[in-house]
Design a protein that fits this description.
Elements: H1 5-12, E1 15-18, E2 23-24, E3 40-41, E4 47-52, H2 55-60, H3 63-71, E5 75-80, H4 93-110, E6 114-117, H5 129-142, E7 146-149, H6 157-173, E8 189-193, E9 206-209, H7 214-221, H8 235-250, E10 255-259
Parallel strand pairs: 1-9, 4-5, 4-7, 5-6, 7-8
Antiparallel strand pairs: 1-2, 2-3, 8-10, 9-10
Helix pairs in contact: 4-7, 5-6
Length: about 270
């Protein structure tokens, strides 16, 4: 059965964030109408970490929120669990992985962020405590206030693995009773990215205005050969056009859509 117009608006409408010191507003607005009422600065959006299965996912689907944080004077980092070295049919995994790493480092530098890497094989990211604690340790080291990562509704096994790893890593990172090299750190918020490979049951509830960082984010993405469609999918057209579409739904010029974990409130965040 097709969705009704009312159901579509329910799915598309979410908490909208305006960039002048990242702001949240009521989620009751209709798409295309200005945000209304109870706007509060979100002090938690000051240090954003993107955690992705591969560098391309980190920058294409999650890079704009990191760019928003650094543009606003905060901190940002990109953690890739794998280099995505098996993503080319014409270049050896060793060469392609090296190119991916170099592109990620340059792209992170362009956005005034850090590039972080784990060394799991592309297509074989394991879901185990070793991987979860490796991510936990990096969370404790870099102390993100917000994490953006993969949604579990993906046909890509590495993306599903990343989702599972991050959920437990965030839990482990916040528990003082778990003794690691660094003290515990609580992640205030988590969002799932709008990724074309993770679309099953993805329902956006938050829109982030990326207009001021849009050009820089595109320049960072352009450092990856796959951005221009060399591996078969036109990432550039997809993600740049999605920014326009999500901007239309949220009354921003350019925006990204995000999904919150169940029970996480994105409204009426108090300021001191």
């Amino acid at each position: 059965m097709s969705r009704t117009r009312r159901e579509f608006f329910t799915m598309a409408t979410g908490s909208a964030l305006a960039l002048s010191g990242v702001k949240f507003s009521n989620s009751g607005q209709m798409p295309g109408r200005p945000a209304s009422g109870n706007v509060a600065q979100d002090r938690d959006f000051s240090n954003v970490m993107a955690i992705a299965a591969h560098p391309g996912d980190a920058f294409f689907a999650m890079g704009a929120p990191v760019a928003v944080a650094t543009h606003s004077g905060g901190r940002g980092s990109f953690l890739s669990l794998s280099l995505g070295e098996r993503g080319s049919s014409v270049i050896s995994p060793e060469q392609y992985g090296s190119a991916q790493r170099q592109a990620a480092e340059k792209a992170a530098g362009l956005l005034a962020a850090k590039a972080l890497f784990l060394s799991y094989p592309d297509g074989e990211i394991p879901v185990n405590d070793k991987a979860k604690f490796a991510v936990c340790d990096l969370i404790r080291e870099h102390k993100p206030s917000t994490i953006v990562t993969h949604w579990k509704g993906s046909w890509h096994k590495d993306h599903r693995a990343c989702y599972e790893i991050v959920q437990d890593a965030v839990f482990y990172a916040g528990l003082p009773a778990i003794a690691r090299k660094l003290p515990a750190h609580n992640v205030a918020k988590q969002f799932f990215a709008d990724n074309w490979e993770d679309a099953s049951e993805f329902v956006a509830d938050t829109y982030l205005d990326i207009t001021p960082v849009f050009d820089d984010w595109l320049k960072a993405c352009e450092l990856f050969p796959m951005w221009r469609g060399e591996t078969g999918f036109r990432y550039n057209d997809y993600y740049s056009s999605r920014a326009v579409t999500q901007g239309c739904l949220s009354n921003f010029k350019r925006a990204v859509a995000l999904m919150s974990p169940e029970g996480q409130s994105t409204r009426h965040i108090p300021t001191s």
